[in-house]
Amino acid sequence: DQKAISEQAAAWSKDIRDVRIFGKSLRFSNLIHPLFTDQEQNWCFSCNQATVVVKGVCSCGSHDTIPYNHVVNEAIDPALPVIFGMDPHPRKPHMYAWYQIDAKDDFVQIFEDELAEDIPATKRRIEEIENDLGLWVVKRFIDPNMARSPSGTRREITWQDEFSNEGLWFDLASTSDTGRSRVNEYLKPDKYTLLPRLRVRSVCAKTILQFKRYVWDDHKLRAEKELKQLAKPKHDDYPTLFKYLMNFDISFSGMTQGAPVIKRFSSRRDNYGETRFQQESANRFARFGKGRFG
User: Fold this and answer.
1) How much is the CA Rg of the chain, to the nearest whole Å?
2) Beta strands 71-72 and 198-201: pairing type?
3) How far is CA 45 from CA 53, 66, 68, 95, 103, in A?
4) What's the pLDDT tens digit per position in 77-116?
5) What is the SS3 assignment for 68?
6) Would strands 94-101 and 81-87 be described as parallel, antiparallel, or unpaired?
7) DSSP assignments along 79-142, one per residue
8) Of 8, 203, 247, 265, which has the most beta carbons under 10 Å away?
9) Is this model's pTM higher than 0.85 or not?
């Protein structure tokens, strides 16, 4: 009986509900991004969480529910700006992905790739993909930990320098953990668009796999517990790129129009010794009088 299931699910804790209702593994009960799903689930805007819905009604009694999924088959829009992120590695393939931002400031990872080649071959591969997909790339960022480390035997030459010499210029990303919190907020469905603000195209199979397996480290195995919770350095490549992306606080208008120009009155004096601010104040007083501007 679906009503009985809903009532029982409401009485369970979130971890038990994830296992018994949604079929998630106990092994991944400490996921860093637990909201991410590649299967359709239901979201309740009253509970503000994933929930069990029976005939459109949440276990809390609310009708304000929608189905949601983070894995989509959205088409690539060549008119929308794209941000490129890279995580280079010296002993395993370089991993990189492309993210499209729309006018609602929502993000869709449109493609992923990895390549265990030298930097010139990697650049050619990146350009080939961008040309084939018709992407308008407006920004590139890179993992700062690897970017400023030596790329070879000469310690003064870094990964960032090597890519710059090949014509790929990157901004250094921020490693702040704030990005992970923002990723979790963007994974929640939006009340107005009824879609998560962060989605992944189904062709990005490795990103989907890593999101479902990216967990916090088990402090019980440590002799000395640390105060700060740490992520396991496994399945972290593409989720970490999302963290870097969120740390930039990118907007659609900023990517398409550039940063706003801040204007102020000049302090330079004219031939009569007055500043432009003094001249503008005098003009306003002449037009409107003292009563309006005090």
Assistant:
1) 25
2) parallel
3) 12, 8, 12, 36, 23
4) 999 999 999 999 888 899 999 999 999 999 999 999 999 9
5) strand
6) antiparallel
7) TSEEEEEEE--SSS-EEEEEEEE-TTS-EEEEEEEEE-S-HHHHHHHHHHHHHHHT-EEEEEEE
8) 247
9) no
